[in-house]
Amino acid sequence: MQGEKVTLQNIKGIGDKISEKILNSVGGEENLQKIVENVDVEKIANIDGISQRKAIEIMNQLLNNPTYEFIKSDRAMEIYEDIINKILAYSNTSYSKNRILLLSPSKDMERIQKQIKFVMDAKKQVSQLPIIKLRGLMKNLKEVEKPKAEYDASKVILVETEEDNSYLTDLGLNQYYPIITASDSPLLQEELMNYDLIFYVYSQGILDFEGMPNLVMINIEENDYEIVPEKIINFFTHNQNLFNRVYEIQKIRGQETILGEIIPIIDELNVIDKREVDIEELVNSLKKDMDEELENAIQNVDLEGDEILNLLNKNLPPKINKIFDEIINERKKIIREKTGFDFDPYLRKYPIEIDDSEIQRIQLEQSSKKENDIFDVKKSAAVELNSIKEQAIKEVEDAIKFDYEFSLGSFAYEYDLNAPEFGDEINLKEALHLELALRKDDENTQTIDYKLTNDENIALLTGANSGGKTTLLETLTQISIMAQMGLPVSAGEAKIKLFDEIYHFSKKRSLDAGAFESFLNVFIPIVTTDSEKLVLLDELEGITELEAAVKIISTFIDMIKESNSYGIIVTHMARELMNYTDIRVDGIEAKGLDENYNLIVDRTPKMNFLAKSTPELILKRIYEKSDDNLKQVYARILEKF
Ligand SMILES: Nc1ncnc2c1ncn2[C@@H]1O[C@H](COP(=O)(O)OP(=O)(O)OP(=O)(O)O)[C@@H](O)[C@H]1O
Questions:
Q1: How do residues 473-523 score in pLDDT, each as one tens digit?
Q2: What does the radius of gyration of the chain's CA atoms come to, in whole angstroms?
Q3: Can you tell me whether residue 220 is helix, strand or coil?
Q4: How far apart are the first and last CA of the chain?
Q5: Which atom in ligand 1 lies closest to the alpha carbon of residue 463?
Q6: Which CATH entry fits the domain spanning 1-67: 1.10.150, 1.10.8, 1.20.120, 1.10.3470?
Q7: CB contact at 8 A, 605 and 459
Q8: Which residues have C-beta within 8 Å of that of residue 301, sequence separation ≥ 6?
Q9: How far is CA 199 from the centre of its chain?
Q10: pLDDT tens digits, residue range 381-413?
């Protein structure tokens, strides 16, 4: 389905006006190509004046998908859209939303069976997963984002030639730091002093940086992410939440994942700044006890005459020097351990003084070393991250794609759907309307068995008001549409016949004023073509006076009987119809009201059984629940039954 080339011809197929509108809105053919590759129905539906249904139709055309006009009436279309919406409620990503929107019925057995297997496998998989937790992680999962480069003007990249400069610029590294070419700049030294840090990206290594502040040397032959590690590190920190989520998802799904490696690498980056010791403070704090130690040690020294003479010439006698050495060396050792630098900041005086220029020299050295350390950590992080980048992006894509499976699997699992079989009859066991399927365990919910065969391909459905006739009819439509969409269905067992067309007419929709003529215009052509149809009629007698309705519908019944089509007609005029045609009559019978005035009813129709409408039961129920005034009226009505 993906990767199809969009041709103007495809677009033209949907009409000049609309194709022009679409091309204008999306900004040309190339963008449209992308939209089609991503099956992005939502994008097309967002265009002003294009409905979702139209967008789906357009997308199917653009994809060269065979369009199959299975659904032939408004009510059937509503039921189809209701199915789609129920599945969409389980979708977490635009990707799966778009794919669900394109689920459509077909008569292609191979395609149907393949899709049913896919959904049943997904259902099984979902049944073993912590659904709620996974749904939380999957919600609004989006693809990785490319962060904008963050420009840091406090640091600079220094190169030797104009050529090197344009090479790095082509790599996009000028988006991170200013780049200066040494040969271009007569006042180079001065200019460089403006920056905290110089990345000297060398090709010859000819520049001298004596007396320069912080410098990091990088070979220009390194990869771009080794020269500016931020390039790849920022990508990972920017998408870190996403990667963390996908990592959790992968673990829950039992998938191999490399995403666990990201966190320790990023953590390592977060601690590098905090390692530094304040040299000046350390040197000062160590000095505190030195004077006292010196005093105590020197008090115990006996000096000879020539030693005292030397002292007068400001030369310390070896005995005293030794004391200084001991005391200072002890501190130098501590400093070396704490900072990694070997130096002597103490002047041999009493009280001991600190050599500020030495401190400054070391501080510079320390800062440069720190920058180099940070750079090394970043660089090795970048190398590691680069080696997993492709896989990390792929894992995110996989998780997004998994949502299609996850949505369909969750839908099938929560509605407890089962794979149908296909054959030459309709035979449902333990079927349930989707609206009732989530309340399966409710004591009032009853599953239904029902059957139509080659020999009895049409039946009347009669029976109690509120007995469940409309519900059964809609259940059949749902199951039929879902099976042809390649979905498992809401029934314990289901045998389904594949039809070319499905019609569902309901009183609720077809009964507007003046509907009779327009109804005939839709209804009668049904029997003029050879295609195999499933026709479901819900109490259509109201369209005109009773006798005329009986004549129309009985003629219709005879024609269906002679065809390969199937039909069910819910009616309260079965007795009248039976005078005109020979047809199986099924009935849902209400036996009475229980103590709470609920209908006692077996919702599975009895075959060959003309059930009464028993409106008196509903009247009795309302009578019992009404206040006194209304009660009197209902009592008078009931007397007449
Ligand atoms: N199998 C079932 N289990 C539980 N409740 C059901 C079942 N079938 C129908 N009902 C409930 O019974 C009520 C009446 O259903 P429905 O409208 O299908 O009856 P009907 O026979 O078409 O009624 P009427 O002849 O008055 O139009 C609805 O509230 C519906 O939810």
A1: 999 999 999 999 999 999 999 999 999 999 999 876 544 556 778 778 888
A2: 42
A3: coil
A4: 63
A5: 21
A6: 1.10.150
A7: no
A8: 319, 320, 323
A9: 41
A10: 999 999 999 999 999 999 999 999 999 999 999
Does 445 contact ligand 1 (Cβ within 6 A)? Answer: yes
Segment (H or E) for 152: none
| Count of residues making up the chain | 641
Phi-psi region of 62 (alpha: psi -120 to 50; beta: other; left: phi over 0): alpha
Q: How many helical (H) and strand (E) elements, i.e. helices and strands, does the chain have?
A: 27, 17
Does the beta carbon of 613 sit less than 6 angstroms from any atom of ligand 1?
Answer: no
The residues pairing with 601 across neighbouring beta strands, listed in sequence order, are 590
**Can you read off the two tokens belonging to residue 51?**
């409905």
User: How far apart are the CA of 464 and the centre of ligand 1, in A?
Assistant: 9
Domains 1-67 and 421-639 belong to one CATH topology: no
Which residues, 6+ apart, have CB-to-CB distance to 61 below 8 Å?
10, 13, 14, 67
- Distance (Å) from CA 588 to ligand 1 centroid: 10
pLDDT in tens, 579-626: 999 999 999 998 888 888 888 999 999 999 988 888 888 899 899 888
Q: In whole angstroms, give the CA distance from residue 262 to residue 282.
A: 36
Q: For the domain covering 421-639, report its CATH number.
A: 3.40.50.300
Interacting residues of 558 by C-beta distance below 8 A, sequence separation 6+? 581
**How far is residue 638's CA from residue 641's CA, in Å, rounded to a whole number?**
5
CA neighbor of 235 nearest in space, from 270, 197, 266: 266
**Residue with CA at minimum distance from ligand 1 atom 9:** 468
Instruction: Give the containing element (helix H, strand E) for 540.
Output: none
Longest dimension (CA), the chain: 149
Contact call for residues 406 and 134 (beta carbons, < 8 A): yes
What atom in ligand 1 is closest to the CA of residue 471? 18
Other residues' Cβ atoms within 10 Å of the Cβ of residue 495: 18
DSSP string, 91-128: --SHHHHHHHHT------HHHHHHHHHHHHHHHHHHHT
**CA–CA separation, 556 vs 565, rounded Å?**
11
- Under 8 Å CB-to-CB from 203, ≥6 apart: which residues? 159, 160, 161, 164, 219, 220, 221
Domain ranges across the chain: 1-67, 146-222, 421-639
The CA dihedral of 245, 247, 252, 258, to the nearest 10 degrees, is: 170
